[in-house]
Write a structure and sequence with these properties.
Layout lengths: L2 E7 L3 H4 L9 H4 L2 H13 L3 E7 L35 E5 L10 H7 L2 E9 L1 H14 L4 E9 L3 H13 L4 E2 L1
Parallel strand pairs: 1-2, 1-4, 2-3, 4-5, 5-6
Helix pairs in contact: 5-6
Amino acid sequence: MGKKALIVADMLRDFLEPQGTLFLGDAARGIIPFVARKIEETRAAGGVVIYVCDAHAPDDKEFRLFAPHAVKGTPGAEIIPELQVLSGDYLVEKTTYSCFYHTEMDSILEREKVERVEIVGVCTSICVLETVKELFERDIPRLVYREGVGDFDPEGHAFALKHMQRVLGAEVI
């Protein structure tokens, strides 16, 4: 039987610490204990934990839309200290909203025989939504924890949750 994977999206210092260049606010910080608990539960159940992290070049085209953030090799691109990557976890660096575009994500899911993916992290309306879309395209069952995702835009957050459920067939609990 296949495994469950937990994708932990962009839980980075630039998004979740007040001094971060794109700090998402206290509401987003509020998901940290839930995310940490889901990581521990996934490990304890023998599932796969996959951290996906922005790792931008200093001149990334995304910076036309957003302030420079999560530049590879900078403190802002580091996973917040409240979460720890352990042996057996995966860390996937990405340069776009998608954790599948030019990454090893497909091969990880195949190698680990993942049959279901759960998603937590930020931003609901950008990288989380794009991840769910990519999982939909691959026909991989997906679950999004409402308590485990956050965004800088409350309206975008609400829309994304509804869209993931109604249009992309995700279970949203």
